[in-house]
Design a protein that fits this description.
360 residues, alpha/beta, eight-stranded parallel β-barrel, 11 helices, 18 strands
């Protein structure tokens, strides 16, 4: 028999979350972001659950080709564009839309021998300082792009650094508005909103939005309470089982480094078949929530490569074989991530290949 650990992907949740987003963005079109193998969910497993989207956005050309070969005929956006001039042959062959953030990319497009012009997303560095043309140079770059015969359409693109926190988007949005005014192109197509902006800043929605983590039912802020009332559903559950039970006296140590010492006369401790080699965060501390036999309890001590220990005191009926939810429908991944000092994105993307995955 295999180890009892198992990840379950929930197609209904993906469809539901796309519908929730559609209701929020009104007339904007949706790029469903499926980079990083669909945030760890598996592009091959989930793309058909999102086929009511208007387009898919990703990084890897191999994933773009996969979608085309599976029959997807709608738009596909390469979020980081292309990396070598020869990549434009693939862009042309598979009718991909590319982000353009560097002068050399424009020169490569101009010099390429294409049988049809391509659509580009011209990236503005509005303040994140990661990719894109500066506000000072952007109007001239836009003029250059519009003059290249190999370019069909140009859409203004930027990315918000703080749409998921108290800083917000106003500073960057002011930069965007100023650029549009300088260009004198009020009707310039634009794509600005990531997941946080989709949920909380309607003024940014524009022609296209780019939801990512919210499609998978987790919070862009890393805090489940921020999205608890929105109605999103988790698209992945990670489950395992109790494989051993111990009753320990007060003062006994648990796990590597003896990081936890029992505090009461008798502590029931369960060992779970899940560890950091399965993608669970090694740095998750004592107290990180876990669901055992339907009851919320906590981790005790250090996470091992293949196992972890949990407090069974609140779960008196729990025994070997009792089900454990590490995150999922009863325990949001954001709560686990927040306890571990990280974000749900990381946990979902880190799911190890050795963990079996089913569609449920």
């Amino acid at each position: 028999m295999p180890r009892p650990i198992l990840a379950t992907i929930h197609p209904d949740a993906l469809r539901h979350n796309l519908t929730v987003i559609r209701q929020k963005v009104s007339n904007s079109k949706i790029w469903s972001v499926v980079k990083a193998n669909a945030y760890g969910h598996g592009l091959d497993r989930i793309w058909q659950s999102l086929k009511q989207t208007d387009g898919f956005a990703l990084l890897d050309m191999k994933e773009a080709i996969y979608l085309r070969e599976q029959g997807w005929q709608g738009p596909i956006l390469l979020l980081e564009g292309f990396f070598k001039a020869e990549d434009l042959l693939v862009v042309n062959q598979y009718a991909l839309t590319v982000a353009v953030h560097s002068h050399w990319q424009l020169e490569a497009i101009k010099a390429a021998r294409l049988d049809k012009p391509i659509d580009i997303y011209l990236k503005l560095n509005s303040g994140m300082n990661r990719l894109g043309f500066s506000p000072a140079e952007y109007p001239q770059v836009m003029t250059v792009a519009n003059g290249i015969q190999n370019i069909n359409s140009v859409t203004l693109m930027t990315h918000f650094a703080n749409s998921d926190n108290e800083i917000g988007v106003d500073g960057q949005f002011a930069v965007i508005e100023k650029i549009i005014a300088q260009l004198g192109m009020d009707s310039l197509p634009h794509c600005l909103a990531n997941s946080g902006a989709v949920l909380w800043y309607p003024k940014t929605h524009g022609d296209w939005v780019r939801p990512g983590i919210v499609l998978y039912g987790a919070s862009p802020s890393g805090k489940w309470r921020d999205i608890a009332e929105i109605g999103l559903r988790p698209a992945m559950s990670l489950q395992s089982e109790i494989i051993a039970v111990h009753e320990l006296s007060e003062g006994e140590k648990i796990g590597y480094g003896s990081r936890y010492t029992t505090q009461q006369h008798v502590t029931r401790v369960g060992t779970v078949a899940c560890g950091y080699a399965d993608g669970y965060p090694r740095h998750a501390p004592t107290g990180t929530p876990v669901i055992v036999d339907g009851i919320r309890t906590r981790l005790l001590g250090a996470i091992s490569m293949d196992m972890m220990t949990v407090d069974l005191t609140p779960c008196p009926q729990a025994t070997i074989g009792s089900p454990v939810e590490l995150w999922g429908t009863k325990l949001p991944v954001d709560e686990v991530a927040e306890a571990a000092g990280t974000v749900g994105y990381e946990l979902l993307c880190a799911l190890a290949k050795r963990v079996p995955v089913i569609i449920g």
